[in-house]
Amino acid sequence: MGYTISEKIMARASGNEHVHADDILWVDIDRAMMDDVLGPRLEIDDRLREMGVDVWDPDKVVIISDHYTPPANLHQANIVKFTREWAKEHGISRYYEFAGPCHQVMVEHGHVLPGSVVVGTDSHTCTYGALAAFATGVGSTEMAGVLATGQTWMKVPQTIRVIWNGELPERVMAKDISLKTIGAVGHSGATYKTLEYAGDTIQRMMMDERLCLTNMAVEAGAKAGIVGYDDVTAEYLARFGVSERYDHLNSDPDAVFCAEYAFKAGELAPQVACPHEVDHVCEAAEQGTDSSGLHRLLHRRPLSRPENGGGASAGPENRPGPPAFGVARLPGNLQSVPAGGHSGGSGRGRGYGAGFQLRRLPGDSLRHPGRRRGVHFHHQPELHRPDGEQDQQRLSGFAGHGGRLGADGPYHGPQGNLRRAL
Known about the structure:
By secondary structure, this protein is α/β, with parallel strands linked by helices.
């Protein structure tokens, strides 16, 4: 009986020659990633002090301040300051600040290798599986144990194999594959399992597209998302001077999967996840065009500047696509303008979050004069009230997981804070 990629990685990390799904093992951690939100300030620093131990191997730890950079208020600034000083105190040289979203930093700075076991204090740590690694998110308490010992226990996950074959139609992309897969598997259908993507469609994808697939594996409840090693992986790693081959990191032909899904890429249309579950997925065309947010989803009209987001749409090589966050039908007509700039329409400016300013205009549709339908977000460093003064209201983490700007107005930040967006 053959082995899946996950079983092969778990065997190496646990020092066993053979392991199988559902085995419970102690595994060595190759890389531990923390961000500023769920990093040293929560549990980790206190627990290490209580145990009287230091970080087991500072060279295997990466800390990335990304959620609160730039900080929107003094509280966030103090968190970043604490994180920076903690990294220095514990000899962690791989500390990043203002470098971008943590998952992009991890892969684009060569901190993930095929076959490695990576844990991180963010649910989308599973992103790194695009490099044929086993990567998963953990909580702060478990991360404290990892930092103290360099190990954690894991159950070897069963693997769901998702096979995509054929050529994708024009303007259909990796995000659509992710959504279609999640719709089929269900939002909890892959709980404590690995979602393994395979097929000739996946083989033709560049690394940024594969990162999109594995990034969203957790939306189906998966412990990990993974893509097998091939020439695309090798070429991506070559930029970091990695020449070693990892061709064994593919599932064996006789490996056992707990489930398999097969899709024809040529039949795939643009997908959209509708309220109120991520697996409520349907074709965008089924939703009509009465909202220009959905109109953009239908026509895949690109933004005029890079998106400020670290989710499944991020990556410099991505083809033009939809916003990283959904836009529901909004009251009135909104248009963004630079801070202190002129919109070309009536209404008063109002800022939403660090870096975004929207302007309400008369009418029922959403537009950007002279460009394209939809809501355009202009990045700016400050938050302003309608009277032009700096606002003390905080709308932090707009690009964070679960951030929404909806018809009823509430904004849901990454820590559960509800703010009025309109």
